[in-house]
Amino acid sequence: MTHFVLAAALIAAQASPPPITIRDQNDGVNSLRVVTVAGFCRGPQPCAGTAKLTRGATVLGKARFTAPPKTTFKTPITLSASVFRALHKARGKRMRPTLTLTPATGQAVSHVITIHL
C-alpha cells in the first residue's frame, strides 16, 4: 500500500505545471540592442531567476528577473554586438531564438520566440 501512495505522490509532483509560463511572442530589438521578453509567474510564490536567449549553443544574451506571483513580468535582455549585427543581416531582419527562464528552484522553462528589428 505504501508503494502505491509513493507512486501517486511522484506522479502528482511530476504533473504539476511549471511555476513560469512563456507564450508565443514577437519582440522588437531597439537601437540599444535591448529586447524585452515576457513571462507569467503562476504563483503562489514569487518568481526570481535568470532569463537566457540562445540560438543553438550560442548565448545571445541573459538577464536576471523577479516577479510577484500571478503576474506577467517583462525582462529586458541586452544582446551582444555580434548578434545585433547578425540580426541586421538576417533574412527579414528576424531570428527565432529559444528563451529559457530558469527560476531559483531550477525547473527551467523554454520556448522559441521571434525577435526582430
Provide a descriptive summary of the structure in words:
With 117 residues, this protein is of the alpha+beta class. It has helices at 2-15, 81-89, and strands at residues 20-21, 26-28, 34-41, 47-55, 58-67, 71-78, 94-95, 98-103, 109-112, 114-116. Strands 5-4-8-9 form a 4-stranded antiparallel sheet, with no helix packed on it.
Overall average pLDDT: 89
Question: What is the SS-derived class?
Answer: alpha+beta
Q: How many distinct helices?
A: 2
Biggest sheet overview? 4 strands, antiparallel
Which radius of gyration do the C-alpha atoms yield?
Answer: 17 Å
Query: How many E-type strands?
Result: 10
Separation, N- and C-terminal Cα atoms: 59 Å
Strand percentage lies at: over 45%
Helical content, roughly? 10-25%
Element pattern in H and E: HEEEEEEHEEEE
Low-pLDDT runs: none
Order of strands, main sheet, comes to: 5-4-8-9
> What coarse outline follows from CA principal-axis ratios?
elongated
Keywords for this structure?
117 residues, alpha+beta, 4-stranded antiparallel beta sheet, 2 helices, elongated
SSE layout and pairings?
Elements: H1 2-15, E1 20-21, E2 26-28, E3 34-41, E4 47-55, E5 58-67, E6 71-78, H2 81-89, E7 94-95, E8 98-103, E9 109-112, E10 114-116
Parallel strand pairs: 2-10
Antiparallel strand pairs: 1-3, 3-6, 4-5, 4-8, 7-10, 8-9
Quick summary of this structure?
The chain is α+β, with helices and mostly antiparallel strands.
